[in-house]
Task: structure prediction
Amino acid sequence: MPFSKRLFDFIFASLALIILSPIIFLTTILIRVFIGTPILFTQMRPGLRGIPFHIYKFRTMTNRRGTQGELLPDAERLTRLGKTLRALSLDELPELLNILRGEMSFVGPRPLLMEYLPRYSPEQARRHDVIPGLTGWAQINGRNALSWEDKFKYDVWYVDHWSFWLDIKIIFMTAWKVFKREGISQEGHATAEYFMGNKD
Result:
């Protein structure tokens, strides 16, 4: 990672944690009251070069299970509070810790699921040539409303065109997208459909 990018990430993640601490505290209380514990959702995700790390997010779903003990679909476990947190991107705030630890950046391809790794084409796998981000080029160009193929094209475009000023542009455009609440989910899905691999 370029030094300027890492320095920017560290300084502004530290400031963001301080400035947003009242919101983080209030969100923690609301989740504890209306969803329960644990407060944080943690999951292994692939980072730079596919190396796994634990991502931290605020929990937005319950652990409701069916009669056979299986977790119910996301749409049935996503709470009203969870929908609000996702719409405002507040569920992503704990990822500031990942940024401080150097596992993520403010801007980069979103870290997806570990099981997706063998399903990428060689071109799509290039999204892991840079550190994953809190937001990215795909997020400001459609977010979850995009098809997987388009998301990966935007991710690879970012890898090939990275610059410090592009990151600044993406951050400001992300703030506008959050304000407009665009692309929060794919049609017919609580968030996005599961990536099963490329059609060809």
User: Anything to note?
Assistant: The CA atoms of residues 86 and 179 lie 12 Å apart. The longest helix spans residues 3-19. The chain has a mean pLDDT of 90.
